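Subject: for your reference before the review

Hello V.,

The reviewers asked for a structural picture of the protein, and I figured it would be easier to keep everything in one thread rather than splitting it across files. Below is the amino acid sequence we used in the manuscript, unchanged from the supplementary table.
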Amino acid sequence: MITIKTRLNGPYLVSGDLSELTLIDADGNPYDLTGKPNIALCRCGGSMTKPFCDATHSTIGFQAAESAVRAEEAQAQK
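And here is what came back from the structure prediction:
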């Protein structure tokens, strides 16, 4: 099983049997994930190694939208 976990104000952490995963770039070429136990995918848009995370989120002050979305949804339910 492959699991994708959202890390608070950080990347998507993809773990599990990555041999079952195909990650394809915009030109249709697959990334080689051979031997990788997990990968971290950029969410902030600032990574120089997209689609992979290079920890730029921590230097640019990236704040994920989940909290804001949840607050908006809670407000709408009132």
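For the response letter, the relevant points are probably these. The CA atoms of residues 33 and 68 lie 33 Å apart. Helices lie at 56-60, 66-77.

Happy to draft the paragraph if you're swamped.

O.
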